[in-house]
Write a structure and sequence with these properties.
Blueprint (H helix, E strand, L loop, with lengths): L3 H27 L1 H30 L3 H14 L4 H13 L3 H14 L4 H13 L3 H14 L4 H13 L3 H14 L4 H13 L3 H12 L5 H17 L3 H14 L5 H13 L3 H13 L5 H15 L5 H11 L15 H4 L9
Helix pairs in contact: 1-2, 2-3, 3-4, 4-5, 5-6, 6-7, 6-8, 7-8, 8-9, 9-10, 10-11, 10-12, 11-12, 12-13, 13-14, 14-15, 15-17, 16-17
């Protein structure tokens, strides 16, 4: 039978061995070899994340968004503190129109990268798309603080102010955006439309005339002529308004009923009843006849009967329009002028 002392020594030796082993580990961690081990581990983790992102990208290129998300989700589960994984997850959610998920994923990204202005901007843009304007404003503030001349952030702040009826703030933000990025087409168009909505036609027209001299995409130049036509109508320059609206129509032939009626009204104000009637016929043929169309036709009829225009025009065109018109249109009832006027010109007459 062993002596009691032998057990005590055995325990002491075991404890000493363990203490030495722990000490060696600490030593290794505090020396170059320990740092190499840590870097190796971190590098391996980064390699895993990079591989997940690259696999996800390849899956997106072939249109397999389900597999793309699975790769990123796997990376996030292995390395939840890897910010780039969360950014890519958010971008993928945006592609899938899943804005709620994108907001959660971007929030996680921002927790890991709080000083990245682009993360805050992206989150603000998502809130804006969800019409959560107050949250968008809050999310945007760090971007503006970190990068005061960030064009996208300034433009978004202008849009947010415009959505919330902050006219003065929106106007100032749009002008600031154009100082940072002079001549930016979309910012200039949005500012001109804001000015037109406030009946500041002359300021808007100046911006739009400058744009009209540039070589723009057909969609943009059509929008320039459309807004310039509206601005001229607000200042009672009806012949100029007709010219610009016709140019807009030639560049965007698939205009809607509102655009046709606006041009018909401008023709009437410019004294061209024939063109106004032809546009009313287009509206009727498209099955988009409404109360405003009826009111304008009634006004044209009354003008013709009063001898203000060539009376034969009304007779010729009535047979084309007759199937669409109620009998009351040829009554002698007067037309309320407010029933005729397109909304963008309602406060100018």
């Amino acid at each position: 039978m062993d002596r009691p002392e032998s057990h005590r020594w055995s325990r002491l030796i075991t404890q000493a061995t363990r203490t030495f082993a722990v000490g060696m580990v600490v030593y290794c961690l505090l020396t170059g070899s320990g740092c190499v081990w840590l870097r190796h581990q971190q590098g391996r983790e980064l390699d895993i994340c990079r591989e997940c992102i690259e696999n996800s990208f390849r899956a997106q290129q072939v249109g397999d968004l389900r597999k793309a998300r699975a790769y990123l989700a796997d990376g996030a589960s292995q390395q939840p503190r890897h910010a780039e994984i969360w950014w890519n997850l958010a971008e993928l959610s945006i592609q899938q129109d899943d804005y709620a998920s994108a907001i959660r994923e971007l929030t996680k990204y921002i927790e890991l990268q709080p000083n990245d202005p682009q993360g805050h901007l992206r989150l603000a843009q998502l809130y804006y798309l969800q019409a959560q304007y107050k949250l968008a404003e809050e999310a945007l503030q760090p971007t503006i603080r970190l990068t005061p001349n960030n064009f996208e952030a300034i433009l978004l702040s202008a849009r947010l102010a415009r959505k919330q009826a902050g006219y003065q703030q929106a106007t100032a933000a749009y002008y600031h955006a154009l100082q940072v990025n002079p001549g930016h087409v979309e910012a200039t168009l949005e500012l001109s439309e804001l000015l037109i909505s406030r009946m500041e036609a002359n300021r808007a027209a100046g911006l739009l005339r400058e744009l009209s001299r540039r070589n723009l995409e057909a969609e943009d130049i059509s929008r320039v002529h459309l807004n310039l036509g509206i601005a001229y109508g607000q200042t009672n320059r009806w012949e100029n308004a007709v010219e610009q609206l016709i140019l807009a129509r030639s560049l965007a032939p698939s205009q809607d009923n509102r655009d046709r009626y606006r041009l018909a009204y401008a023709h009437w104000k410019a004294g061209d009843i024939q063109q106004s009637l032809e546009l009313l016929i287009e509206i009727a043929d498209a099955g988009q006849w409404n109360q405003r169309s009826e009111a304008l036709y009634t006004q044209l009829t009354q003008d013709s009967l009063a001898g203000e225009f060539n009376p034969t025009l009304q007779v010729v065109n009535y047979h084309t329009l007759a199937p669409f018109l109620p009998d009351r249109l040829l009554s002698s009832d007067s037309v309320n002028p407010q029933d005729l006027i397109p909304p963008e010109w309602a406060m100018t007459e």
